[in-house]
Amino acid sequence: MDILGISAFYHDAAAALIRDGIPIAAAQEERFTRKKNDPSFPNRAIRYCLRDGQITARDLDWVVFYEKPLRKFERILITHLKHFPRSSRAFTRAMFLWLGDRLWMKNRIAAELGVEPRKILFTEHHQSHAASAYFPSPFNEAAILTVDGVGEWATTTFGIGSGDNLEIISELHFPHSLGLLYSAITAFLGFQVNEGEQKVMGLAAYGKPIYLEQIQSLINFSKDGSFELDISAFRYPFDPDKSFGDRLTTLLGEARDPQKPILYQSGNSRHADIAASLQKVLEQGLITLTKELYKHAPSKNLCLAGGVALNVVANRKILDQGPFDHIFIPPAPGDAGGALGAALYVNHVFLNARRCYIQDHAFLGETINTEPFEGAREISNEDDLVDEVVSKLIEGKTVGWVQGRFEWGPRSLGHRSLLADPRDPIMKHHINQNIKHREMFRPFAPAVTKEWANKYFAMPQGSGLATQFMSLSIPALHENMHKIPAALHVDHTGRAQLVDKVVNPLIHKLITRFGEETGVHVLLNTSLNLQGEPIVKGEEDAINMLNHSGMDILVAENRIYDSV
Question: 144 pLDDT band (50/70/90 cuts)?
């Protein structure tokens, strides 16, 4: 049974192919088009999935789209009519898009793929999110929380997973959304919505929540865990270009011009203070939701998905302060992951197939080219390759690391990574300024083998596979934090990735050998991409990055390329 899942037209378009309940291939369209967060119909990602599965579109048993266009159109139409005439510009733009081909999605998919319309199904947006978290989890039963900006109408859902079944038991509706609250203040701080939220999370560590009361005044939680936003502070229901209103300016002062400096240093940390206050409100809101969810689904296990589940700091607070003992967060909890979730939902809920898969890795993307490019030095012996790379890292060199299939999701987990020595505090500044060309406050991640994780980090109980997917922010242990300053954030935490010897053997060997030589069993790991670009797809993209940045060497499989 081959099922293709598709997500598209908001952000992070993607495709995923499952066969008899097991993911065969999954990829975001951005990797192929080189347009970050590409929302367009994922033709290239679909072609990759079919190619990897060695089938044609006509061989597919089912194709499933990750949300229901008619219900989404209903929400857009009703919202714009409600806010007319203020929504006139947004209404015109939306009608142009929706009355073109978005509303007729079954016809679009049938035409693009050449499949029979009877094979095309639709799930609800938050059903796709919930399925992406529960069905690949190691749990036989779990409570499920999905939180994002908005799907059709839902912005937050409670669900229950039991065996092969999944049920959404309650939901909160647009315009009341923790995700949209976070995105609106992301825009207020001068960052791009659906891209800058991770920057705001990193910026928050430099500030103090001195605007907490102001932001708390925008959200009102009821005793049953539901909440409402003060919509008078926001414009996102009717304005496609500006998501916040004058009331937010009254509460927080002038919004930041994206071209102006970000204030996060001591003495003037206003923007960091706003970010810290927003982050605190998000954490409080999510903990309130998990406590209410537990009343309806008193499990020891929590599955978390939706774009808000990319907030690793909040995820850790949920695990520490919420009522659940164990947590699972898939490597692609956002809209891209909805493609895989939609396929899994059809397989298990519509078709009643038994679960047979636990997601212990994220390597579902395309492998790299087999033929070397000009300038490659090939090293056939794996130990010799590792030894040379370790020596370069110890010399202070930055290493692009491209191995096997690229990762599913937004984080580099050792197949499309930029690696460096975490012992040198200057390395953080060097990579941000000379390689990534991005803001100086942005943190990196520490990659540590499972065997050594407890020596460097206060590993939380119940984190399980979440730590393999960089889904939690974890405090470094006081006695060892001074050894890895470049891999830690300003608050001495790290989005640690635990590297499993079986799942990721080569980078496990590299970290182990680095530890043997230096006494530090951690590497700095960050995504292999330049500012504003997607993570590299393969060897050619990585070589281009090598030639247009301050990166020192590139290792692609057993080939080494030196910077010019």
Answer: very high
Q: What share of the chain is helix, strand, coil (3-state, %, to 5)?
A: 40, 20, 40
Q: Is 443 exposed, middle or buried (0-12, 13-18, 19+ CB in 10 A)?
A: buried
Same structural domain for residues 387 and 524? yes
Q: What whole-number percentage of the chain has pLDDT above 70? A: 100
Give pLDDT, residue 267: 85
Identify the CA nearest to 506 among candidates 361, 386, 377, 389: 386
Q: Are residues 413 and 340 in the same domain?
A: no
- The domain tally of the chain equals 3
Query: Among residues 54, 562, 135, which one has the least CA distance to residue 345?
Result: 135
Look at residue 366 and tell me if it is in a domain.
no
Mean pLDDT of the chain: 96
Distance CA 155, CA 224 (A): 16
Three-state DSSP state, 82: helix
Of 328, 359, 393, the domain-final residue = 328
Query: Would you say residue 452 lies in a domain?
Result: yes
DSSP-derived secondary structure letter, 516: H
The verdict on 313 and 345 lying in the same domain is: no
pLDDT of residue 44: 98
58 in the Ramachandran plot: left (φ > 0), alpha (ψ -120 to 50) or beta? alpha
Q: Determine the average pLDDT of the residues in 387-395.
A: 98
Print burial letters for 470-495: b (CB count within 10 Å at least 16), e (below 16): bbbbbbbeeeebebbbbbbbeeebbb
Position 346 pLDDT exceeds 80: yes
Q: Residue 47: what are its φ and ψ, rounded to 5°?
A: -60, -40
- CA–CA separation, 178 vs 184, rounded Å? 10
- Domain of residue 308 covers 178-328
Maximal C-alpha separation, the chain = 69
Q: What angle do CA 197, 203, 207 make, to 5 degrees?
A: 135
The identity of residue 161, as a single letter, is G
pLDDT tens digit sequence for 231-278: 999 999 988 889 999 999 999 999 999 999 999 998 899 999 999 999
| Residue 357 in domain | no
Give the per-residue pLDDT at 84. Answer: 85
pLDDT in tens, 490-525: 999 999 999 999 999 999 999 999 999 999 999 999
What is the C-alpha separation between 91 and 100, in angstroms, rounded?
A: 14
d(CA 116, CA 346): 17
d(CA 241, CA 227): 25
Using an 8 Å Cβ cutoff, are 349 and 166 in contact? yes
**Closest to 215 measured CA to CA, from 193, 196, 188, 190:** 188
Looking at the fold, whether 456 and 479 belong to one and the same domain comes out as yes
CB of 124 within 8 A of CB of 64?
A: no
Give the C-alpha separation, 560 to 263, whole Å.
40
- Give me the amino acid identity at 485: P
Nearest Cα residue to 444 out of 538, 522, 499, 504: 522
DSSP state letter for 77: H
Torsion over CA: 525, 530, 534, 537 (sign):
negative
Is 128 within the bounds of a domain? no
Say which residues have a Cβ less than 8 Å from residue 156's Cβ, sequence separation at least 6: 145, 146, 147, 171, 172, 177, 178, 289, 306
